[in-house]
Amino acid sequence: MTKAEKTRNFILEKTAPIFNMKGYAGTSLNDITAATGLTKGSIYGNFSNKDEVALAAFDYNLHNIVSRVEKEINRQKEVKGKLLVYVNIYQHLLSGVVAEGGCPILNTAIDADDTHPELKARALKAVSGWKNRIMQLVEAGIASKEINTDHNPEQIALTIIAMIEGGIMISRLTAKPAYWNLIMDSLKKYVNSLG
Predict the structure, then answer these.
(1) Lower CB count within 10 Å: N or C terminus of the chain?
(2) 172: left (phi over 0), alpha (psi -120 to 50) or beta
(3) Is the pTM of this model over 0.85?
């Protein structure tokens, strides 16, 4: 890795959690320089503007979650176990173990909905990729007869995503982690009923 690549990665490592917690509008250049200890000139020597840092920070946060999910999915033998990986990873995400500030997809989708078209497009692409990955797993489960053929893979994928993201929103908004556990218990029952 070149010195420039190392500096760029350092900036992302230090600022990605800030963008995830404070959002695009809430994150200032001063936040970026304070987190990195670098000057504005150093930041803009590696990124052309705050937009570029924000987009790269979203990609960085998303990559961290997706790589953890895929690593754990590859350890599972049964499709239902693979689907339940999302519950387990997101439980760690809420505790800040996986990503400070929670789910970058949910945070960015809400933050950039009307304010930043490029970030909104990245969040939409992430949700589409997530939906497609779950659909692949469900289709594999149907092919292996682990999941009944009368199930709609897209409906299952959307339900899983909605329950996870809705559970995060409700538990964080109410400051009641017990709500998250109740919703995830319902999701586990739903996944296990797919046989």
Answers:
(1) N
(2) alpha
(3) yes
